[in-house]
Amino acid sequence: MLSSTAHPPSEAALCCYVNATAHTEIVRITNIPHWYFERVVFPGQRLIFEAPAIAKLEIHTGMAISSILSETIDCQELQLTSSSAASDSLA
Question: Quick one: pLDDT band at residue 64, thresholds 50, 70, 90?
Answer without folding.
Answer: low
